[in-house]
Design goal:
The complex is a heterodimer of chains A (353) and B (345). With 353 residues, chain A is mainly alpha-helical. Chain A has twelve helices and one strand. The longest helix of chain A has 31 residues. By secondary structure, chain B is α+β, with helices and mostly antiparallel strands. In chain B, a hairpin with a 6-residue loop joins strand 7 and strand 8. Classes of the chains: A mainly alpha (353), B alpha+beta (345). Bound molecules: iron/sulfur cluster.
Amino acid sequence: MSAEVGAEMGVSLPGAGWRRADGAPAQRREGRRRRRAGDDPGVSMVEEAEFTSYYGRPVIKPPVWKQPDVPAYLFLGGAAGTSAMLGALADMTHRPALGIAAHRVAAGGALASVGFLIHDLGRPERFLNMLRVLKVTSPLSVGSWVLAPFSALTTATAGAQLLGWFPRLRRVTGAVAAVLGGPMTTYTAVLLANTSVPSWHEPHRELPYLFAGSAAAGGGALCTVFTPVDEAAPARRLAIAGAAVELAMTHRVEHGHGLVSEPYRIGRAGLLLRTARASTAAGTGLLLATGRRRWGAVAGGALVAAGSALTRFGVFDAGMTSAKDPKYTVEPQRERARAREAASSPGEERAGG
Amino acid sequence: MTSISSLSSAFTGDDPGNRLFGPVPDVVGQSTSDADHPARVGFFTDTSVCIGCKACEVACKEWNTLPMDGADGRVDVLGLTGESYDNTGMLGANSWRHVAFVEQSRAVDLPMPTVGRPGDVGSPRPLAEPPVVHAEVPASATTAEQTAPQQTQSGDREIRWLMSSDVCKHCTHAGCLDVCPTGSLFRTEYGSVVVQEDICNGCGYCVPACPYGVIDQREDDGRVFKCTLCYDRLTDGLMPACATACPTESIQFGDLDELQARADARLAALQADGVEGARLYGRDESDGVGGVGAFFLLLDEPEVYGLPPDPVVTTRDLPSMWRHAAAGAAMAFGLALSAFAGHRR
Ligand code: SF4
């Protein structure tokens, strides 16, 4: 019936030919809003011809998470996780200097990570409500239950080591912390991926490996910086291997997902990730060539650690870009819906044109 | 609240009760052991009869004592957007109903396809240029106006004004509820999704988790707020404030199955009248969020109203994400272990 009416009126355009009557002013307004939000001018403007939106407003709510709190929390938590592994393994293989450095990096990273997490809460005084329930459907709940014992154990280990207390017990706490260090490196990837933010959700299969690699690079690099070169070899190797994984996975996230990969390459996120790549690559090169000398270890380690941190800031920023521009939400969903419609009713025109 | 044991099967691959994704016949029964809970209630918002009066917005603000906010959700700001009559802008912490206004026009094939201004016969106005809508609306009703609501003809163009009162969808699989780490968000006995403000610690996770961009953090407060489906009124046997205030029954409140039947009938009637583009949004229980408790009759694509065309609760992919996270953690371990192999220096 409705198809008939459409044919009668001679309308064959998509959406029965309806267009927003005030398209142009709405786009100008959008330009203002973007700049006010402090967005990068490099972000491409919405093309009204490609897709429809409600006055260019975002469909989903961009995360209210603050910078640098959340990206710093991602970086520090991950680096602390791999440092705890290095610490426990150093204890087992009798590398006291590496053990001291790694346990301290783990404890410092964990505490700072907790601090950033609490500071980002809207009601920081209620942070203990995080431990009110345990929900597997909430990566933040699972993460809190990993982060809380992890930070307690790493702090206890490093503290006991500093004071020379409980030499046996602190090996046990260090080992348990190392086990928790595994999930510490990846739960934050699930935390971001399990949102409606297109550029975080779409690469949900890659992000855990990207974060694990980045955590290995960050933790290994920080421990390389703080450990005398005689004992720093494992930290250096971890940093190099982690950096390789981080570079490879970042490349896949930046290119593997069509439109929603775009935010990783443009604007501030693109700049951050390009800087991260240069820093990580230069640092890795330095570690490989001169990592057995103190200055080479310090410079290379610092560069790789900076690359790891910048990667997290870049990933965070790309997600924000994709959340603020409705095209990243609407276009892939529209495509999906169209494909499903085509599959379910082959050859049939949609009613109303 | 959902216990871990009852969820474990969902995370090991098969999910017979559709705990994470898919249609759920009894969404309340999924989160309570109480067999005789009330029926699931919801809203059916029929946008074809919305007149854009914003009575729902006002009633909601009044009843829930929501602070004044501008079109970007900031408290105590008054702002005119210029986006038609919409100065509310969006749903958020302080606006739990939001009436969208969309002004549209389209060219129609008439015998004389162009219209010139009086006097300038030589330069007909190109069809692509939209007419001044308000000045040229003819008083007489056209055929289009009789068959399609919110639509009229103006010269060589048809114009229409879409209005739609948006609200939290009270999803069957609610992303906000799934990701809330404190248990502040919960499923009520009526099937609605509500924030317990005395527990919320403002972590903000629900904000990007919602596929509809509904829930938001109140800036000066730190906690998140959204529509409660007037939980306080329901427990006292009253209708939600917005549905009570709506003068055209565009917002209908009731038991969800009854609303769904009514919506199906309304859609069939509109289609029989030849109304183009009428469709139900959120009615389909096999959609990405398992159907919603507050669904809509729309006259155009969802994205025209600022709604996502194919929303999916991301928890659907969470089991796979956890598996990849476990593999990633194992990889980190492997890297650390192998770093200790080989030369000591
Ligand atoms: S629409 Fe958004 S806020 Fe409302 S129940 Fe669904 S996920 Fe939660």
